[in-house]
Design a protein that fits this description.
By secondary structure, this protein is mostly helical. It is built from 9 helices and no strands. The model has no long low-confidence stretch (mean pLDDT 94). It binds adenosine-5'-diphosphate (ADP) and magnesium ion.
Amino acid sequence: VSAEAVRAALQASLRACQDHEVELGELDSVAGDGDHGSGMVRGFSAACEAVVSADGTAGAAINSAGAAFADAAGGASGALWGLLLQTVGRDLDGADVTPDQLVAALRHGASELGRIGKAGVGDKTLLDTLIPFVDALDRRLAPGVPLASAWGDALAVARDATEATATMVARRGRAAALGQRGLGTMDPGARSLFIVLEATGDVIADATREIES
Ligand code: ADP
Ligand code: MG
């Protein structure tokens, strides 16, 4: 994983958030304030700009992306995404990132989100997508299993987990005030996290194909 790969993943995530900006805003307007789509687009735009000329390690690029995201996006998810990216980035500061290091960094990011946001599984937040995803990725990764294929399998688990947030009542963030109203609707933060994981998976698959061919 290089700074170049991070740049590609951030750009793919920005495009995916732009494609889903209206949907994310609509999900957030059910029990929140409707700004989630625009916030994610602002965050990833700033993150992309921050790494335009990054030529250090992948971790350093992710770390600068996180700082820029938090500044630009605002709101709960700005702070949380900034924390997630910065935690992952700081953990991946070596030149060569192995899949196991990536899993450990993502797990650390999830635990920091839980600590700072005082949220856990079942509270109807992005953690309800992130934690099942990391667990599934961890289970799938084994010697000889390409990261792209493990990532794809974990995405299927994450998709179901994201959809399952529709059955939950929010216990954290703005939506907690109107918790019951959100029943039947997916958590916007869980949905956007899934969209980013999916876009990142496409970049990982493309990068691996290039290496293999
Ligand atoms: P805001 O609520 O400030 O308008 P956004 O609309 O951008 O922020 O993001 C809302 C999302 O942030 C929620 O759908 C949820 O996934 C996540 N979220 C909010 N508060 C918390 C928290 N305390 N812990 C974890 N995630 C949270
Ligand atoms: Mg909002």
